[in-house]
Every structure is written in structure tokens, then in C-alpha cells.
Design goal:
The chain is α/β, with parallel strands linked by helices. The protein is built from 15 helices and ten strands. Strand 4, helix 5 and strand 5 form a beta-alpha-beta unit. The chain is globular, with a radius of gyration of 21 Å. 55% of the residues are buried. Bound molecules: ligand F0G. Ligand F0G binds next to helix 4 and helix 9.
Length: 364
């Protein structure tokens, strides 16, 4: 499957024609990894799977939307694409624009994007403009510029982004042989991805390709939780910079996904995000960026409140939960280094390196 990009894999469900020139980096077809230890830690009745979107070509789920958005921008004759971004969208837009031979401009909040993402936008040759403002300010500016100039806006307010991203749901249903999971947990920032997944699940359900619909569980960071609080947050704050958004563009669609699916949108603190981030890396070997861990943090929170105690599985013996791990951990090395145990430096001899290993304490 990996040899095809997602437009080729899901062509009948996407707005392309035989003449469309497809701009692809062979995105999609990411693994759905069972997380045994995490499942046991969350709840005895729950079976957690990790959709590892960090394994997309630029290291995040944005590539699913960007292959469609850039393909269509090229088809419509645009020469320039533009986006506002907390980092991943800019990395993805820059890469796909480079591949398409288009120019790319990205607006990012100064000093608030992870280093890996910044390096990507720069090396792919985008014009990187840092603004003294946050993501919401940047998106407002970009929308206006794209309305007034012949520039394609490739944020998730572009419907082609949603079309591409809905394929994540298709993959999950196919992996489970025609079932959606009981629940899907994911981070919510600008709210495009929860909108896209819900669209994908509904489409396959309506086509009879899925026997059920999942309940959608979205999580915002507590310092950037406008949907939970019911009002925009003027100065959003969180270590999960990817979801540091105070006024999501797809707010209404996210609420519709929540309500139609009988799900919920909750919030998790930075401390809860960091704990989930460490547990994923240290017990499952899966390294995602902090924002991606918000869904897992949310599951811990729900479970502690007894949420899963009275739920019956849709199919089989366990309540199936898929967590969308939206971005790769390598995007944000600074956060990884700051939450992990410090490294040690010793002299270059055997005794010195054996001492910290403390092998006597390792069970036989
Ligand atoms: N996780 C990661 C790693 C993200 O980069 C984003 C959004 C989200 C979750 C939330 O997804 O916005 O569709 O609700 N990043 C955008 C960006 C805003 O500019 O890269 P959403």
C-alpha cells in the first residue's frame, strides 16, 4: 500500500479527474499500532490503537490534506500557496509546493513553533514570515491576503484539505475489516482534523463500508480550550504549540462532529499532556509530539472519572479506541529533552560507564 499516495488509494472518494496531475509524496497508509501496555494502564475493558500519523512524509497528518490542496491549487492554475501555521501545516505546504514547483509563503507566530517544523519550512524554500502575534492573528491575515490576491489558501478552511484528511478514517475502517472503532480520541486545534475524520467515517458508513460510527473524543489544551469554555481564548497558552489556538476556524463543524457522534470535547492540562507524551514514548516506543499526546491524556482523564466503566463494546470483547497521533516526536526535540531524564557524562572507561547502569538492581 505504501507505494501509492492516498489520492491513488482512494481516488473514487476524492474530487479528482483522470486528467488531474497529482502532487504526492506517497502520504497516508500509516500504521495502526496496538498499544498493549497503554490499554492496560487506561482501563481493563479498553483496547487502544495508535494511528501513527507522524510517519507521513513530512511527519504529520497535514500531508493527507496537503496532497489534495496542492494538487487542486495546481489544477486551478495557482502559482503561489499560502498558510498560517503553528508549524506542521507550514512544513507540509512547503514540501508539497516544492514538489509541485510552486511558491509557498507561511505565516507563523514568532518564537512559538517547534524547531523541527521551522527547519522544514525553511529547507523546502518557503518564504517564512514570523508575525508578532498568534496563530489566530496569522490566519486572519492570510485569509484576507488570499481573498485579495491570486494565492491559494491551504489551511484547513480549504475544503480540499478536509477531503484529503478524511482518508485517515477510511484506513482505520479497512484495518478493522469494516468496523469503525467504538471511540476515536484526538487533539483539537483549528478543528479541521476532527471535522475531516467525522466526514470520512460518515461517508464510509453511508456507503455501507462501515457497520458503525465511532464516538468522537476531542481534546484541547487547558490553556487553549475555546470549544470547551464556549468562548474564544484571546491569549492561548500551552506547551503543545501545535494546538495553541484560541479561535478555531472549524469550531461549528467540531461541535457537530461531537454532537452527531455522541462524543465529547474536553480539555487536558499541560502536565497531563506531558505525562501521556512520556508514557507513549517510554512504554510503547512511540514518539509523538506533545499536542499528539493530548488524545491519550484525555483517555486517562476519562478513565479516571469512570467514563468507560459502563460502556459495552460495539463488537468483540473490548472497547476499541483509536488515538490519532498527529505528529512525530522529532518535530519538537526541545520538549523531549526538557521532559526526559538528563543525560550523564563520564570518563571514557568501563567502570565509569557501568556505575550508572546499576546492573545489580536489574531483575534477573
Ligand atoms: N496535532 C498536531 C501535531 C497539529 O499540528 C495540529 C494542528 C493539530 C493536532 C490539531 O489539528 O487544527 O485540525 O484541529 N496544526 C495546525 C498547523 C494548526 O498549523 O500545523 P486541527
Amino acid at each position: 500500500m505504501r507505494s501509492l499516495g492516498l489520492i491513488e488509494r482512494y481516488r473514487p472518494y476524492l474530487p479528482v479527474t483522470p486528467d488531474t496531475h497529482i502532487v504526492s509524496l506517497h502520504e497516508g497508509s500509516t500504521p495502526l499500532i496496538p498499544a498493549f501496555k497503554l490499554s492496560a494502564a487506561i482501563h481493563p475493558k479498553v483496547e487502544v490503537y495508535l494511528k501513527y500519523e507522524g510517519l507521513n512524509p513530512t511527519g504529520s497528518f497535514k500531508d493527507r490534506g496537503m496532497t489534495m490542496a496542492v494538487t487542486k491549487a495546481l489544477e486551478e492554475g495557482y502559482k503561489v500557496v499560502m498558510c498560517a501555521s503553528t508549524g506542521n501545516t507550514s512544513a507540509s505546504a512547503a514540501a508539497y509546493a516544492a514538489r509541485a514547483g510552486m511558491q509557498c509563503a507561511v505565516l507563523i507566530p514568532e518564537g512559538k513553533i517547534a524547531l523541527g517544523k521551522l527547519s522544514q519550512a525553511m529547507i523546502h524554500g518557503a518564504k517564512v514570515i514570523q508575525i508578532r502575534g498568534n496563530f489566530d492573528d496569522a490566519l486572519k491575515l492570510v485569509r484576507r491576503v488570499c481573498e485579495e490576491h491570486p494565492i491559494a489558501l491551504v489551511n484547513s478552511v480549504n475544503p480540499f484539505r478536509i477531503e484529503g484528511q478524511k482518508t485517515g478514517a477510511f484506513e482505520i475502517i479497512e484495518e478493522f475489516d469494516g468496523f469503525a472503532p467504538d471511540f476515536q480520541a484526538m487533539p483539537v486545534g483549528n478543528a479541521g482534523n476532527i471535522t475531516a475524520y467525522w466526514k470520512g467515517y460518515r461517508e464510509f458508513f453511508d456507503l455501507g463500508k462501515s457497520k458503525n460510527l465511532p464516538r468522537m473524543l476531542g481534546f484541547q489544551a487547558a490553556g487553549a480550550a475555546p470549544i470547551v469554555l464556549g468562548a474564544p481564548v484571546e491569549k492561548p497558552q500551552t506547551i503543545a504549540t501545535a494546538i495553541r489556538i484560541g479561535n478555531p476556524a472549524s469550531w461549528k463543524q467540531a461541535v457537530a462532529a461531537r454532537d452527531e457522534s455522541e462524543g465529547l470535547i474536553g480539555m487536558v492540562t499541560d502536565h497531563q499532556i506531558k505525562e501521556a507524551y512520556k508514557v507513549l514514548a517510554a512504554t510503547e516506543g512511540v514518539f509523538c509530539e506533545p499536542a499528539s499526546a493530548a488524545g491519550v491524556a484525555g483517555l486517562f482523564k476519562l478513565s479516571e472519572a469512570g467514563f468507560f466503566d459502563n460502556i459495552e463494546p460495539v463488537h468483540g470483547d473490548f472497547i476499541r479506541v483509536v488515538c490519532i497521533l498527529t505528529g512525530h516526536g522529532l518535530k519538537d526535540p526541545d520538549n523531549a529533552i526538557s521532559v526526559a531524564e538528563e543525560t550523564i557524562t563520564v570518563d571514557a572507561n568501563q567502570d565509569a560507564i557501568l556505575r550508572p547502569l546499576n546492573l545489580d538492581a536489574v531483575p534477573a
